[in-house]
Amino acid sequence: VIFVESGGGLVQPGGSLRLSCSASGFPFPNYAMAWYRQFQGQERTFIAGITSTGENTAYHASVKGRFTISRDNSKNIVWLEMNALKPNDTAAYYCNAVPTHTFPSWGQGTQVAVSS
Question: Which of 63, 73, 76, 103 is 20 to 30 A distant from 29 in Cα terms?
Fold first, then answer.
């Protein structure tokens, strides 16, 4: 199982970024997927999830209304559209299956820094 996250970078407060995650090594269309983030010195936490078909999504309260998760099962990709970014969104972002089915392997993540 391999996850490759990309799209992070430095952005000003209020700005936007779109993260991408390319997944391989498992039947991607069968899995609900999620984005997680890890603040420096803390554990990885769930922030957004999407069902296998993409029909339903769920968000952590801290990102609800600002972030949107989506997927393309034909390309094995899951995205995270992030708007109205805040300095406390600064973290490393990762994708994996949803918490009940997380694979033990993680990608390298993509770093997001929100600062003026």
Answer: 63
Question: Nearest to residue 50, comparing CAs of 75, 37, 67?
Answer: 67
Backbone angles phi, psi at 27, to 5 degrees: -75, 85
- Asked if residues 115 and 90 have their Cβ atoms less than 8 Å apart, the reply is yes
pLDDT tens, the chain, 116 aa long: 999 999 999 999 999 999 999 999 999 999 999 999 999 999 999 999 999 999 999 999 999 999 999 999 999 999 999 999 999 999 999 999 999 999 999 999 999 999 99
